[in-house]
Design a protein that fits this description.
270 residues; Vanadium-containing Chloroperoxidase, domain 1; 2 strands; 61% helix; disordered N terminus; disordered C terminus; transmembrane helix; signal; PAP2 superfamily protein
Length: 270
């Protein structure tokens, strides 16, 4: 009897050691598969809409007037810095690397599949919202108002995708996703303020240089930031496990027959 108890104790000890860390999220292959598929499908549809957008006509170009732009955006009309466009790519790339860097965390990489799945959902949802909007809405970029630029570039349909900033939306979705997941795994961690601050600064920097590059107006950047941040936060939040109050812990003692035992105790708080 004692031999059996010893074997069971060793088995439980090894099993407990090999257990993955607890994830605050849950994954449903059916629901999440549909979600991810819808996001990818929406993105593909949006890209088709963007490709089918018509170029600006010469008459429409000549009719553009900075005075018709709202005062909150008018100051950016005519911006067209190629250098700023190149610089914006740096924080843009950093934002996508931020969630991947969390995979070096032992607790998070125990749930790599779940984590990467949610990240892809955040990005595909953001891409679908942006691409469909950009494909349906015609709004001239700030550089289209720069009369010193090549006319052909000002006329091309790419110049009609100012609303809203996809770069900022994607950047915010990535950084806020990383901050949200880290906060959910470590709700009591110190220094979370700096993580959220970094999550804010990186896409804001992208937005600043996208404006200087003449790609977007201020309101385009603000909307992209808001939608991206909301997606990055809401996707993990919607995956929060519903049985977070379920707790499993090792236990040991002696039963009424006088035999020692080792096992797992399960408790649920209402």
């Amino acid at each position: 009897m004692k031999t059996i108890i010893f074997i069971l104790t060793v088995f439980l000890t090894v099993t407990s050691t090999a257990q993955q860390s607890t994830s605050p999220y849950e994954w449903n292959w059916v629901k999440d598969g549909i979600w991810l598929g819808a996001g990818l499908g929406g993105s593909a549809y949006g890209l088709m809409l963007i490709q089918d957008k018509e170029d600006l006509t010469m008459a429409e170009l000549n009719a553009l007037n900075k005075e018709d732009i709202s005062s909150i955006n008018r100051w950016a009309a005519g911006y067209s810095s190629e250098n700023a466009s190149s610089i914006s790519d740096i924080p843009f790339a950093i934002s996508f690397a931020a969630p991947l860097a969390l995979l070096f965390n032992d607790n998070i990489n125990d749930h790599t599949g779940q984590y990467v799945g949610m990240y892809l959902e955040s990005l595909s949802t953001t891409a679908a919202l942006f691409s469909i909007t950009a494909g349906l809405v015609d709004k001239s970029r700030p550089y289209v108002y720069d009369e010193n630029l090549d006319t052909d570039r000002r006329l091309r349909n790419n110049g009609q995708r100012s609303f809203y900033s996809g770069h900022v939306a994607a950047s915010a979705a990535a950084t806020f996703f990383a901050a949200k997941v880290y906060s959910d795994f470590y709700p009591d961690a110190e220094g979370k303020f700096f993580i959220w601050a970094a999550a804010t600064v990186v896409p804001a920097t992208v937005g600043y240089y996208r404006i200087k590059a003449g790609q977007h107006f201020l309101t385009d950047v603000l909307l992209g930031f808001g939608l991206g941040a909301a997606t990055g936060i809401l996707v993990p939040e919607l995956h929060k496990t519903k049985d977070a109050s379920l707790r499993v812990s090792p236990t040991a003692g002696r039963n009424f027959l006088g035999d020692d035992y080792t096992g797992l105790a399960m408790s649920y708080s209402f």
